[in-house]
Every structure is written in C-alpha cells, then in structure tokens.
Amino acid sequence: MDTGIVSTVIISLIIFVILLIGIRSMIRRATTGCCGAGDEIKPIYPQDRDLSHYPYRYHLDIQGMTCQNCVYRIQNAFHKQDGLYARVNRHKKEAVISAKQEQQEESLRKIVTGLGYTVTGFSKIEQEPHS
C-alpha cells in the first residue's frame, strides 16, 4: 500500500474522531449546559462586600471548572456560608476566599469538593501588618 494513501487514511481518521468529540460536546452543551448545570446560574453575594471586614484569606487551586456557571456555583456556595466572601477565577483555576473568622482547611475544601470540583492546592494568605 502506498504511504501517501496510509497517511491520508490516518489523518482522515484523526479528523473524524475530533469531529465526533466536538459533536458530542455540542450536544451535551445544548441539552445540559456546558458543565451539566442546565439553566444559567445567577450569582449571589454576601450582604457585607467590604473586604476590609474579612481579615483572613485563603487560596485554593481548583480543577474542573469549565464555564461561568462553575464560577458562580463555587462562589455561591461560599457566599451562602456566614462570614465568607469568594472570588473565583476559572482561567487561573483558583479561588481566593476571604473570611471574617479563621477557617479550617478541611471545611473550605469540603465546600468545593461537595460541588464535584477538585481542590489541588491550599494556602493561607498572610496579611500585611497594618502600621
């Protein structure tokens, strides 16, 4: 068999597989939203949005976010907790959690993992002392 024909067949098969994956993804997004969320999720915010009232900060690396609905889902879960304020960035795959009281790592991890995402890193952000 000619190597040119073999190469063409292999490239055609690769393109076909890519098309199948794309079509499957498009169907999934059309029926359930990009991350299976269904309808668009609306953000909720804590009543107190003044970050100076939140002296404790934590950084979480999060895997599994694919869209803005994922961001809102995670932020909303933190905002439903008393004394927590979250800023989530899906492009950086991270969340910065501000808290009015000191938090345990495990409790913050549980909020994220309970939603089906994976926490791959955690650190406490040390605050600069006020002069």
Verbal overview:
- By secondary structure, the chain is an alpha+beta fold.
- The protein contains three helices and four strands; from the N terminus they run H-E-H-E-E-H-E.
- The protein has helices spanning 3-32, 68-79, 105-113; strands spanning 56-63, 84-89, 94-99, 118-125.
- A four-stranded antiparallel β-sheet has the order 2-3-1-4.
- A hairpin with a 4-residue loop joins strand 2 and strand 3 (94-99).
- It is elongated.
- The chain starts with a helix and ends in a 6-residue tail after the last strand.
Present the secondary structure layout.
Blueprint: H1 3-32, E1 56-63, H2 68-79, E2 84-89, E3 94-99, H3 105-113, E4 118-125
Antiparallel strand pairs: 1-3, 1-4, 2-3
